[in-house]
Design a protein that fits this description.
With 148 residues, the chain is α+β, with helices and mostly antiparallel strands. The protein has three helices and seven strands. The longest helix is centred in the last third of the chain and has 14 residues. Bound molecules: zinc ion. The site of zinc ion (ZN) has 5 residues, from helix 1. Zinc ion (ZN) binds next to helix 1.
């Protein structure tokens, strides 16, 4: 994740069938000082409430190399999770962290951000998506095609 400038990774992305997500927002600290040294582990995380207002932001994903698209998601979310010390948390989150959490927690359900694109945007990325499905990904890290 660090080598590829990712800021989050979910266990299923590396083939682990567990509900674990890591998020490291420290690379954003230059623009968002509040994320300095922000490195967290989220175990068995669930979004239990979301704000009605949404915000559109560009996303990319280590599991979908080469595609960056704007995705609309709730601005604020209420999450429950365990941290690395198995301490329970129940909190409202907003901003970039809410975005990263929603993206990563989708992975726990087998979803990637392109599943949330409009049919038009998906159509416009069709060739790139088809190449990924065929195992033709161009990226700097080792990948494994898991879709048959
Ligand atoms: Zn991702």
């Amino acid at each position: 994740m660090w080598n590829s400038e990712g800021i989050g990774l979910a266990a299923p992305q590396i083939g682990l069938p567990i509900s674990l997500v890591v998020i490291d927002l420290d690379p954003l600290a230059e623009d968002y000082p509040e994320y300095k040294d922000f490195r967290r582990v989220y175990i068995n995380a669930h979004i239990i409430e979301t704000s009605e207002d949404t915000v559109s932001m560009e996303e990319g994903c280590l599991s979908v190399p080469g595609i960056h698209e704007k995705v609309s998601r709730p601005t604020r979310i209420r999450v429950q999770y365990l941290d690395e010390n198995m301490q329970e948390h129940d909190e409202w989150v907003e901003g970039f962290l809410a975005r990263a959490m929603q993206h990563e927690f989708d992975h726990l359900e087998g979803k990637v951000f392109v599943d949330r694109l409009s049919p038009l945007r998906r159509q416009m990325n069709k060739n790139r998506l088809m190449n990924l499905l065929r195992g033709k990904a161009h990226c700097t890290y080792k990948t494994k095609r898991i879709l048959k």
